[in-house]
## 1
Amino acid sequence: MPVADQPPPLPPLREVIAAHGLSASKALGQNFLFDEQLLARIAAIPGDLDNKAVLEIGPGPGGLTRALLRAGARVTAIERDSRCIPALADLQAAFPGQLRVVEGDALAVDHADLMGEPFAVVANLPYNVGTLLFTRWLSGEDWPPRWTSLTLMFQQEVAQRVVAAPDTSAYGRLAVLAQWRSRARLAMKVHRSAFTPPPKVMSAIVHVEPAEAPSGVRSATLERLTEAAFGQRRKMLRQSLKGVPGALAALEVCNIDTTRRAETLAVSDFVALARVLDG
């Protein structure tokens, strides 16, 4: 297996794209990154990856994949675009035993079963499925999860929603789900000009690590509570939460004014409400 400080020589990414006749698919939310120094910086965010299992979603022609392989990671890459499989096969040949390519839809795969061991997720997520995948990784009653960290590229607006503080315009359901039993930080901003083709928006990378889960709270309860509260975020809590059985009584128990709006509640307030509901 190649070691991280002696990677095999590889052609520039632009040559790979040209050789395989690839172009970014708007339907699949693709935007390619060619800057190998930037890709190496992204691969370094999770820390030492030497001989660590890494899941990558939507590798495309393999720009980030090669950076992860050079860092010594054992990468499983899920790619639904069959056009990209030959380019990834070239990387498999260059890094024997380090890269497994799974052709298919990442939303249709049980990632923990696929990996079979603790794993980090590092991905330039396709914009059209990024939030859906992220909330799936954050959900579930089993905690800590099988993933050890999430290092994910999002539209900057979405990234800011993940790390937002209460009583800000970006604060909402995504922030609560990301922060109630995880540590989330904005690790890097990426200018739109770094991509081919350049997207209309700026991007940013979020890094998330599991933290200790508060006792007496079910993930499903918190998800239901935040969905109702932020689904009508302009309304007072007494209105937005009236459809959640027991929620109005829980507000009283927690001494939370029912005329407040969801974005004014701290993550700990939602945890306290969920704990009362789970009784």
## 2
Amino acid sequence: MAKVSIIVPVYNVEKYLAKCLDTLVKQTLQDIEIIVVNDGATDHSAEIIDSFACKYPQIISLTKPNGGLSDARNYGIPYATGEYIGFVDSDDYVDIDMYEKLYVKAKEENSDIVECDLHHVFPDGTIDTEVGERIQDKKQMLMMGRSVVWNKIYRREWLQNTGIVFPKGCIYEDVEFFVKLVPHIGKYSYVDAASIYYVQRGDSINNKQTLKTLDILKVLQHIKDYYVEQNWYEEYKEALEFFYTRILLCSSFSRMCHIADKKEREKALQKNWDTLQKNFPNWHKNKYLKQLKTKRGLYMRCINKVTYKIFSAVFALR
């Protein structure tokens, strides 16, 4: 059994892939396996994978037809034998001691999940470090936790027992994956180090705002349905209400405001508003929203049908 299995989905990232894999094969943690899933890449990614696989026995090379990021991650999970599983996107890279730090903390605290901080790497070469909150309360974690999948390791047996996988065909897949996991968590730990480098690509799907942005509405519905099915909905209702409100009036709203086509933008913004009203018509009265004493909290509390349209017009110009 490996200590950590690292799953790396690959699709047309020849410019970044070698750097990513180089930081993984040089990890200070011994007994790791690197599961590289070629998701039908059409560039030279396959040749790069082959060259690393020939040199480094810890690399397991898999190839499948293109199915998207979620499908590639899901495909790799059954091949993992490690005590813990990690995920790295193939255009990012990590410190060579990242997985040693995460694994040591996991063993010290018998953790289900261990998280580290991260760096944002911009096209001009500048790097900003993001330090997250050390949240333990599950409702706070649902509402404000950092949902990205690649700055964590997950206990493999625990993860597989939850039955939770990534939603195929949707962007914002990390959001659904993380929020569904929250009620299952026994022990969540943090490492006080920023060990992964999140490369900001101008050609990334996350930087191209289209009607695909509406995938967040599917993801939110999947989450709500899951909590209902698991009989957790009443326990987490107010936290879910706040979560919906924060996503639909902040991050999702901002992205939809930057859809270039005006008709598509208006369509997305209307669906965004309607989704919030349909699922949580009394969101203004949410106790967590009332308690949020920040600029973001003030902004959300002042939103109504009229101010929503005003902010839509303002944000579209930014």
## 3
Amino acid sequence: MKLLKRKSDRIDELAAGAGEGGTSLAADALKRMARSPVAVVGAGVVALFVILSAIAPWIAPKDPFTRYPELRSELTPTNIPGPMPGFLLGSDQNGYDFFSRLLVASQQTLIVGVLATLLGLTVGMIIGGLAGALGGWVDSALMRLVDIMLSLPALLLAISIAALFREGSQWTVIIAVGTVSVPIFARLLRGAMLAQRESDHVLAATALGVRRRTVVFRHMLPNSLGPVIVQATLTLAAAIIEAASLSFLGLGDPSPRRAEWGLMLAQAQRHFEVKPELAFYPAAAIIIVALGFTLLGESMRESLDPKNRR
């Protein structure tokens, strides 16, 4: 038993550093990302977005949910007040401080994007993990379900799911967007685990008689998570755009008191000729944040790719 335990521990060590020549894959990837301007720009945008989202309620110069009399007094069908003392970007179409709502909306956008990505990641990993670990009819049944979901355009599927709910809400958007990302994670994890199944350390553990559950959770799954984590970063960018799209189409929370970039963009379309800034700033924020997550995710993917290692 002691000999078997020593051999099993040795296999664990080989699995952790397989193909790395004693160098941590994560540490090596971080070094290459630090030398990449694209990665630095993406990480900077993401970090700025996360920090602003976290502290937005405290740094907003005005209450984003208060209709100020000095703004409402100048609101007309043909005039929405622009920048004025005390109001950096002026008013929105309802008499709220536009700049403060933009800041607070970043927090709501981040919450929706993160929760939707976590939902898709969790369910996708369960499906992909079961398919990759068990194989056989379980793999076939689960992958056919995934293929059906992948056959539908992502936005169309999200709209269909959101439309099933009686009333739109923030959770409606989270569930719809999260469901759309499930097949991506499932396919990715399943493929990575199938590749790990033929690796030397997994074959050695199996030959030693290590239990299948131990092989899956100690050898196959940990070494398959790298691509999934990278994909989560890219999916977060898509989730922010898709959540904004559903809010824009009126499938999210319709309350004008809720500040969220997609909803602000939808509400601004009726006043575009009067004050185009109401649409420009939320749209620009969505594009910049999605671009930041995309740049960071692509840099992570390239850094973790063994073909790009020097």
## 4
Amino acid sequence: MPRNSWDRFNWSDVTPKAAFMNRRQIMASGLAAAGMSALAGPGGAQGVKKGSPYSTVAEPNTFEEITSYNNFYEFGWDKGDPKAHAGQLTTDPWSVEIDGLVDRPGSYPLEELLSHVTLEERIYRFRCVEAWSMVIPWVGFPLSQLLAYVGVQSSAKYVAFETLVRPEEMPGQRGRASIDWPYREGLRMDEAMNPLTIMATGLYGEDMPKQNGAPIRLIVPWKYGFKSAKSIVKISLTDKQPLNTWQQLQPSEYGFYANVNPTVDHPRWSQATERVIGAGLFGGRQETLMFNGYGEQVAALYSGMDLSKYY
């Protein structure tokens, strides 16, 4: 199949059978040991909706690659630090505070939020601003379902996100004074309501690993990965554009929109191509797609904007 075409299928359809069965065994034992699962929303893990039309046909990276090579600065600045240090993170119980321009503000237990949404499997391309990429089979639900549950007021124009601050369990928060924790991100309202934008609670059919943003994180597949905030504890609806963490740290290099765009280079490297994680010993490279290949779904959001000025 063409790498960038779309189809209705499950991640198991593009995974060798032996690997698929092995992962299913691991998943079963992991869920049994975990007790209450973050995937125990409507119907539990078995209730996850399959075959999303938004899934890519590209082959997913392995579970090991996805959980061993990623950025989660709360645990350290090396790619292996999240896996090495995230095991100490406490994720149950977990609540998300929702405030601002909403009809029903409050602190919502995660299980309550999950009882009002439909979990889906979404196989998305993931593109880091550092010019590397993966394909990841997330489990989550459209952010629009959560916003509908709490009631968005007509004056709301943006959605702001804040992540967990717990330095006793997150060593990166103790040793990097340059970041003003919590990690902050934001989306324009129409971006947040786009059906591609999801809140993810798992991957490969399992609960979200702690090193990947457990128990709930944002996924915006047409934007660089730093927009997809992890371990979210607060969502605010506002009429003012929020300042995200990387804008605050390096405003000359990072902007609010952060749409994947091969024609606009980072000040220190090209964005025209990307290193594909898992593609050989040194990693193969491929051309970067505008909006990470999701232009059909999102290009209209930016009609009339000069995209060369919005990094």
